[in-house]
Amino acid sequence: MTHRTVSLLPQLALGLFVILSACSPAWATELSPNTLSRDSYWVFFRDKAIQNDAEYQQGIAAVRAGYSPAAIERREMRGSTAEVFGYSDLPVANTYLTSVQQSGASINYASSWLNAVSIKTDASQLAAIAALPFVDHVQPVARFGIPSITNAAPATAAPSAGQTFYGNAEAQSAQIGIQAVHNLGITGAGVTIGVLDTGFIRNHEAFNQPGHVLQVAGEYDFINNDGNTADGVPSGSQINHGTYILGVMGAYKPNTLVGAAYGSSFLLAKTEVVPTETQIEETYWVAGLQWLEANGADVVTSSLGYIDWYTQTQLNGHIAVTSVAAHTATLAGLPIVNAAGNQGHDGNPTTSSLIAPADAELVITVGAVNSAGVLAGFSSSGPTADGRLKPEVLAQGVGTATVSPGSISGYTNVDGTSLSTPLVASTIALMLDANPNLTVPQIRQILFSTASRANNPDTAFYLEGYGIINAYQAVLEAQELAVPEPATIWLAAAGMFGLVLLARKYPSRSAR
Questions:
Q1: 403 versus 276: which is more confidently predicted?
Q2: Which residue range forms the structural domain that includes residue 419?
Q3: Whole-Å CA distances, 191 to 180, 188, 424, 512
Q4: What's the predicted TM-score (pTM) here?
């Protein structure tokens, strides 16, 4: 199995995490699961203590130096901001972090994108921190939630002879046109899919076929601060959920199980603790996303959600921490696909059951159908608090075929929006294989305009969005979308401040 362990701190210390040096203070440490508990909070700062343009430019140069070449190239080609690197990429001010630490709080992680730090503290310390002149506000760190797997069938052996090339994955692949895309020679090659999940066991036979071993470009365990995302720590079931997701995309055993993007490589981030629900997972998710972005992911899939401490009225894309981080990543040219959730729906368009970051503005939010295209009863509904259509697209999330984590030769079928989400992420990988220049707004427009309900999106009940995706038509449109070389692209960047047109010179890569 080919992979490399990407170190968390060395590559990201400049710009995304706290700046580290030989004389770093005590708070400049990796995330520690032993120092966060239910008294965990985010502290948001008013600014980054940049005094002049020279400091700003020096900071930007340091951030760029800490980025992978692949991430820089993606930002240059697909980003929706006027600058490749900007203010949000600058690290949190060291002086602010020192002051917070001097209050007695334990500092665990500082996010440049949020301009915030995750801490453990007590009530008296928190009051003192909130009163600091450079602090904007504080809020609790939210608990995580894996959209619960509503059913996982017992593991079975490989299917009998006579199966099609896709084996158990035939129905889910045929429903969205995956086979037709693969017949074009487009399998996701050259595209890196980032995965945020619980852990990933990779000794399964479908990940280790001769001549086709799963390609892992890098991995990091944010729970245990190490480079092994395949262990069962802290619990034996830790690796189950993430392994299901990876199998939907990357499995390759012809006539048994073939994943939707089997030609892609993967960046794996272990961010969720099973089976407990503790506040630290929201912190891990943000750290994992920034790590994936800086290390060159082309698309991120997240079958996770956060709702404790948030209400549906707050899911407007600008309040939940994960939603804010996700939106920042999309502006950097990184498409993010997230499960809508398995909280079900009641047919009432005035109520919703989403999870964050599914509410983020440019995140592609996915609901679930069965193999006949009927909406799953557990699939969560929108709209967002500000009235936007979510979920936006659908794929099979009932009886979705994947590998069994408990056996190196076992296979299973699993229910949940967790399983429909990687099918959509795989489709985006195929689109980027066909046309590497696609921006996030373009990817969204193509996916929505080629889906089954493109002409009648579900703005009545907010259950089905634009319908079931059509990977084949989406890839054909991606191929047809010509990008001059070099090009000045005018992007409509939708943000909290309205619609802004941004011009940027793009060093176009020719589509494969």
A1: 403
A2: 1-483
A3: 19, 6, 14, 11
A4: 0.87
